[in-house]
Amino acid sequence: MTHGLTDAQFFEKVSSFLGPFYIALALMNGLAALYLWRSGQLKTWLKLAKGIEIPNAIVWLAVAMGFAILGAVAGGGMAESLSLPESFREAINKSTGPVIYSAGTTVILIILFFFREFFVRPAVAWTIWNLMWLFLGLSMTDRDFFEIVAKPDNVPIVMLVFLLAFFTWLGTSQAVINDRRKENGEPPMEKLDNEKVLVWPDLVYPELICMIALTAFLIFWAIALPAPLEEAASSVKTPNPSKAPWYFLGLQEMLVYYDPWMAGVVLPSLIVAGLMAIPYLDFNKAGNGYYTIKERMFSYSIFQFGFLEMWITLIVLGTLLRGPNWNFFGPYEHWDAHKVQALNNVNLSEFFWENMLGRSLPGTLALADISASLDPSNWPSWIAWLGGIADPFLQFFSLLFGRELPGTLLVLGYFIALPPLMALTVLRNFYKRMGFIRFMVMANLLLFMGSLPIKMLLRWIFDLKYLISIPEYFFNF
Amino acid sequence: MADLGEMIRESQIWKSIFRHPMPVDRRNRIVVMLTNFFLHLHPVSIKKQGIALSYTWCMGGVTFFLFLVETVTGVLLMFYYRPTVEWAYTDIQMLRDVHSLGLLREIHRWAAHAMVITVWLHMYRVFLTGSYKPPREFNWVLGVFLLLLTLLLSFTGYLLPWDQLAVWAITVGSNMARATPILGHEGPGQQLLTLGGVDMITNASDARFALLGAREVGEETLNRFYILHCIAIPLGVALLLAVHFWRVRKDGGISGPL
Ligand code: HEM
């Protein structure tokens, strides 16, 4: 998209975007200041000398001025000066990788969660919101960053991230208020809005306005950003990287840790089935029809981990940070197709038999191996036919319980032994209230969900490729 | 201006279409909701909370609106597009370079992306407010089907421009079907389905073949995805939406604290 542009031309292009971008941010802060002032929410934030007090609205007004200046600088053709320092970008590129990225986002989410009372405060949230936009703006002057983020089909992901930040704040701040009200013995806020109003005009008019605004937004988006159209399809020229549409990139990212039959078929089916099962597994009656976190800690934290961490951040990773050959690239790193990453992952069976026991891998057992008389080809044809069906089973299970025994035991233990153990210990109350079937369904769904972070950790710490590896039968886990 | 508005509203044509004058009093506002075909999707009155933006985020409504936008722009796009390997790419090129309605493609594409985002946000809000709890369990299940269909709509549409982006995204996306257990020709257990030593699951009979209509993404796939995208899936969505909306009302309207 910016190929073949000189640096000067590139910065010109970025300027034409950044100018309006910063002006819009200035407007946003100006409106916030106006809102605080008109709605009487002024608060003194700073006391300078005697009698000179600086209220919050003035601070946001100052921020607005700052953005306006940035807008003028960028629009005036000096966008280049509005970048993050080269050394800082280098450092980010160097230090990031799938491990830091995944662990980092998890830690950030956990911090946001535990200190939510602090982070939902409007002033704090608004500061973070401004910083997110500022970070985006300053990064856009980096060619490699721009190249990826401004790719037309990637723009929705940037939108998704900002929208999710906003709506997570909106939901959490109401939950925090409701949780506090509950502690004081008050009903949730939503209860206060119990009176009825007429749909005409109280709903119909806002709907109309909403539709008009959305139409305007779509037309603006359509004019500002042309839809992508690359060269005509060719079955010989494989692009590198080849990516599925962005909303499936979380699944494609899972291919790093799982075989396609898991990442592409079993896990997606389980995600869908698991989502459908939620209402039938969540027996907690509280929190129906209002925002709350404390009353639904269990389901809330699991859903948020699954949705925000394992779905959204994997999509962001797969779209923005995975380049040629599905290698990881830092946000300011050039997508170099020749980047080599050493792959020295080992299967558990290799590790067990070769490294630990110093033996070669056990082989397959076929009927013919047991005794020549069992070899199906020596039989009359109709039994040979049966033998032909039985043989693959035998070979498969001989591998499963022979060569792959350590992994098989671990996986079976994980899926078969853990649920009853959980029912007896940590999730005892759940088991009592849910009954056998519901509990088993939930436990297995949770275990499947948990297998992804576990496999990630095993990969990062032990370079483990597969726990069970039977490529002969396309069965790797 | 006010006179013009008056003139229009007093004209025979206007009156013949809108059977009532603009309702200003309570009685007439109720009547208009009950007697208008399109408005009767809504109840007559609603809890204040049900229309609070901070509660519903309006995301279900926005998703529905985007679906309508997609339907309208999609029908218009169909006038300019032929789903054949020979024409698909050129038709899209023409839409960009020649036809004055070219902007339609942008609106269609961006609204589609937006719809994927808003349907996730809608689900997110329904979860956060615990609105899937009784009596709304089944409407959540219907919602998950809608989510799935929304993604499939987007996925099948992605192929239609027939450029490198389209074909390879679909190739990568559908490659996974090869690995379907038992039914994919590279899936675990595939060898178990043999008859007299002959594999029954090959690359010409497996799940991926069923999806693509061929061994590779090709003419047959384009045709298949076109029909799914323009007819089959939208019909499915429309049907499910009807039930989804009906259930919202039958389940007692937008959820709220008891
Ligand atoms: C094409 C996609 C969808 C459309 C157009 C749609 C539309 C709507 C609309 C207009 C409402 C009324 C309330 C609101 O706007 O929030 C609603 C409610 C609801 N939706 Fe959806 N929806 C879709 C997908 C989903 C999904 C993916 C789920 C969940 C997995 C879901 C579950 C529900 C539930 C449980 C309600 C009742 C909420 C309440 O009473 O508070 N829907 N839907």
How would you sum up this structure, described in words?
The complex is a heterodimer of chains A (477) and B (258). Chain A has 477 residues and is mainly α. Chain A folds into 3 domains: 1-82; 86-226 and 240-341, no CATH class; 348-476, no CATH class. Chain A has helices at residues 7-38, 56-78, 86-95, 98-114, 116-119, 122-140, 143-149, 155-183, 199-202, 204-224, 249-254, 260-281, 297-321, 348-356, 367-370, 381-403, 405-424, 428-434, 436-462, and strands spanning 44-47, 53-55, 196-198, 469-470, 475-476. The radius of gyration of chain A is 29 Å and the shape is globular. The mean pLDDT of chain A is 90. By secondary structure, chain B is mostly helical. Chain B folds into 2 domains: 1-42, no CATH class; 57-250, Cytochrome Bc1 Complex, Chain C (Up-down Bundle), CATH 1.20.810. Helices cover 61% and strands 3% of the residues of chain B. Chain B has 11 helices and 3 strands, in the order H-H-H-E-H-H-H-H-H-H-E-E-H-H. A two-stranded antiparallel ribbon of chain B has the order 2-3. In chain B, a hairpin with a 2-residue loop joins strand 2 and strand 3. In chain B, helix 7 packs antiparallel against helix 8 and helix 8 (137-159) crosses helix 9. Chain B is globular and about 80 Å long. The termini of chain B are far apart. At the A-B interface, helix 8, strand 3, helix 9, helix 10 and helix 12 of A face helix 3, strand 1, helix 4, helix 5 and helix 6 of B. Strand 3 of chain A pairs antiparallel with strand 1 (45-47) of chain B, so a sheet runs across the interface. Protoporphyrin IX containing FE binds at residues 56, 58-61, 63-64, 67, 119, 122-123, 126, 131-132, 136, 139-140, 143-144, 146-147, 150, 241, 244, 248, 254-255 of chain B.
